[in-house]
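Researcher: I'm preparing a figure for a lab meeting and need a structural model of a single chain. I don't have an experimental structure, so a prediction will have to do for now. The sequence is pasted below. Please return the structure as tokens so I can convert it later.
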Amino acid sequence: MQTLPSANYPLASKMKSLCVYCGSSYGAKPVYAEAARALAKEMVDQQISLVYGGGNVGLMGVIANEILRLGGQATGVIPQALMDKEVGHRELTHLHVVKDMHERKALMAELSDGFVAMPGGIGTLEELFEILTWSQLGFHQKPIGVLNVDGFYDGLIAFLQNQVAQGFVKDNQASLMMHETTPLALMIRLQTFVPQPSTKVLDALAAKTLLP
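Model: Understood. Here is the structure written out token by token.
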């Protein structure tokens, strides 16, 4: 059974840690690694520590190494199976080796005051939408952002708006996924985020009152 986060997570009034989801590959363009290093610098400048998947490959390794190079703190959470394949980063400030992916994602959420998705693959999208779902259901009230590097997430943003247009997602649910093209602009959005009550819970209550 998948572990769900507690509904009592603290709000990110003063962000101390940020979970970054990103690719275990570098991607086709140097701009992705450049953006990872720029985000790392912004985080260190604001004294925000990194929480991530614990890898030492691709953009995961880029942002972790840059955080450490700049004197910041980086915490990794990695399943034992991936650690056994020697893709784990062994020079982090903290490294948690856990049983499986479900435990990994739950612990990353628990350790973090906010979440950012950088360019990445299927795993990055899965992590992003799971944490969005948890927010929509009221399991946490932490800010979630997408760093839209070089238009990488344009299609995803448009698809989410199409879900709104087709009546499957409400505007206030879609707005949970903030997006900006630069680390500074995104960090400002995350730091000034004001949580709203869970729309799913409110919808359920409203539907109940309409029952005969």
